[in-house]
Amino acid sequence: MNEFKLSADEITRFRAQGYIGPFTLYSPEEARERYRVIRAELFNRDHAVYALPPQSAIANYDRHLDVNLLSEHVSHPGIVGRLTSILGPDVVCWRSEMFPKYPGDEGTDWHQADTFAHASGQPQIVWPGDTRFGGAITAWTALTEASEENGCLRFMPGTHEEMFYDESKKMAFDPGNVNALEKDGIKRGFFGYDYRSLQKDPDWKPDESKAVSMVMEPGQCVIFWSTLMHSSFPNSTKDRTRLGYTSRYVPASVRVYPDTDTVDEYGSKISLDKFGVVLVAGEDHYGHNRRVDRNMRGVPFAAPQMA
Q1: pTM exceeds cut of 0.90
Q2: Per-residue pLDDT tens for 244-262?
Q3: Which of 71, 93, 105, 127 could form an SS bridge with 131, CB 3.0 to 4.6 Å?
Q4: What is the per-residue pLDDT across 113-147, written as a single tens digit (0 to 9) for each?
Q5: What DSSP assignment string belongs to 104-141?
Q6: Do 248 and 95 contact (CB within 8 A), yes or no?
Q7: What is the crossing angle of helices 8-17 and 77-87, to 10°?
């Protein structure tokens, strides 16, 4: 794991801009082959932890808990080694999500996530003590090419230390908003929500002249704070789907889904009775969260990496 630890210069750069990368986890050929295998298992929900129809917006949550190659991916040394440089030695993966952007799909609006209460209305992660705000580290891995034409990520460097949105406000879910909102001439929304309704200042607008595009090859990964303002372009192509897979991490001291047994967001409600965090590095000295050491197919997760 030590070969992937961030250097002092990389840590300084990460602290200043809120992201690091992209870096390569898999060759483009390996990434495409992994995607071929993963895609077949994604359609099989026999082992999925959430009983949801495939068309649900959150049906793709936490597929690392049942898809073998995703179970392997969340503990990839190239991710975990870098994470421990940022979060410390004891790290859990608490969520993963698949983000497809099909030809013609809208872009994702500018947003930040601190407690991840923006859709459910309830904090989903809570840092210990009186931390001003915490967030999570997201590892966003491209399983296909990600270009400005087919919907790559965009970042606002340095915005991760100030929240421009109030996640305690309630957004109204409207499936009619999907692929229907246009802002400043660009088609972009937030999966049925209007993220602008969470702005602390309703007249504020992000300075898009400072945005950078994360153009990535299949198999590349970028790591960023969830509190970093980020978005994505629409997919303006006719035949090139963009697929990204995110795995999200916090220190083992963080409470995940505190005081709740369900998650209600994006028009669906899920039970957390089969959910558990995955320890990917170090040890859990806290016992805050239910942990799982094997996926729903009975395959063990990789042993936690030790610094």
Answers
A1: yes
A2: 999 999 999 999 999 899 9
A3: 127
A4: 999 998 888 899 999 987 767 899 999 999 999 99
A5: TPPEEPPB--SSS-TTTSS-SEE-STT-S----EEEEE
A6: yes
A7: 70
